[in-house]
Amino acid sequence: MKKSNIVLKGLLKENPVFVLLLGTCPTLATSTSVISALAMGLAATAVLICSNIVISALRNVIPDKVRIPCYIVVIAGFVTIVQLLMQAYLPSLYEMLGVYLALIVVNCIILGRAEGYANSHKVGEAALDGLGMGIGFLLALLCMAIIREVLGNGSFAGMAIPFLKDHCIPILVQSPGGFLVFGIMIALVSALTNGKAPIKKSFDCEGCPSAKACGKLTCSGCANEEKEAAVND
Asked: Is there a contact between 127 and 49 (Cβ–Cβ < 8 Å)?
């Protein structure tokens, strides 16, 4: 795959939020304002790139049986660095993000890219994948935040918009409004991509971390066995 395609796929075709439906919790929680969405997106992107690089560099060293705990340790280390830097130099943003900054450790996007991509690709490709997915996550947050803050609070980045301030829709900055905007954005992205999410119809064991323990020739064979077992039960 071309380097440009690795980066660009995360923007729309494989957008982690609107296509892969990952990171829903921080997306809904921090998209009530443009500033918090921007801060969360940049923080997650930094952690995603750095963790992808380290995990890719250590992919032949990390034992298969403990790969997930090792990934979490690496991710937690970078999240701690981001937290300390933000607390020291951007305390207002640190307070605004609150617990969701620490929860980047268990963000499905970061852990998913570590397991699904960085674990089986070279360092350069893993870094580009982290950049693309991070930008995709950031753009998703900003799109939702702009809609919710402008229409729901009558402001942009904390600055009041005179006309909209008196004609805003407060429910958009509440939980139901967040789900409403989220659903609309998913439908819009699905329409733009013709509803074709990048899901493989058949799988092989190449790059699968559990291939050695599984002993199967193809992952489709595993799936067929599971179906047969379910029928027999």
From this structure: yes
pLDDT tens digits for range 164-215: 878 889 999 999 999 999 999 999 999 888 766 554 444 455 555 555 555 5
**Residue at 205: amino acid letter:** C
